[in-house]
Amino acid sequence: MQKFTVQKRGNLRDFTDEHYPQGSFALSRLLRAGDVRVNGVRVSKNVPLEAGDEVVYYTTAKDEERVFYREIYRDENILVVDKFAGVNSEALAEHLFRACGARFIHRLDRNTCGVMCFALNDEAEKQLLAAFRERRAEKVYRAICFHPFRRKSAVCAAYLVKDERAARVKIFDEPVRGSEKILTEYRVLEDHGEYSLVEICLHSGKTHQIRAHLAFLGNPVAGDEKYGDEVLNRKYHVKRQILVASSLAFTLQGRLSYLSGRVFSSSFSAALPS
Q1: pLDDT tens string 183-193
Q2: Can you give the CATH number for the domain in which 26 is found?
Q3: What is the C-alpha to C-alpha distance for residues 166 and 267, in angstroms, rounded to an integer?
Q4: Do β-strands 103-104 and 137-146 pair in parallel, antiparallel, or remain unpaired?
Q5: pLDDT tens digits, residue range 51-65?
Q6: From CA 42, how far away is CA 133, in angstroms rounded?
Q7: pTM of the shown model
Q8: Domain range for residue 60?
């Protein structure tokens, strides 16, 4: 059993995603079984929550033992982990903060797996946040994308607009009202005709940038339910997006300078289901 007190208005699913990764994995089953209670009342669906509400999850030992990240590296300053797909970054951050005081530095989309780093003290937090803000953090992604690419490599500029109501973004060739300029660099590593293995580097880091921009270019990420190709997802039996944060490296100064140039790599690979 796990008990939480709600701090702000929202809904059960979002609250679970943000605060309790084990429960997030098991939420649909827990709701069907009547194993979630809000203020002592069993609930069977996503419900609104108010500040002060008490949420209790009657999870099993198997749920609690479920692995949702692997540790890649740890010292007195930083923690680097491999996040599993399906895990909310904020929930993982909260879990690690409770476990070892780790501070949240950056996020990955829920269904993107791969490398994330956390700070373990004030100075590390300051330096890592500055590295991301000043583009001294090099994040490399790998993905399976559908349809042949027009060019084998390119740095592509576009303009992104968030649609908060639809929980997605829109991409445009030219600036429009409320847009932000984005730069996405890609390189085709393997061309298999209908799909390719692609390496991606972001020169800007916006919500859904990789997925939306590649889809705009005509090469959606395999398994992407929001921006993807439903026909090819079904053809290749892809049920979750194949996008991996494959490596992370920093240029750092002072106390963390010993980490400059070191590359932290994910154990996950980007590949279609066999």
Answers
A1: 999 999 999 99
A2: 3.10.290
A3: 33
A4: unpaired
A5: 999 999 998 888 777
A6: 44
A7: 0.84
A8: 2-64
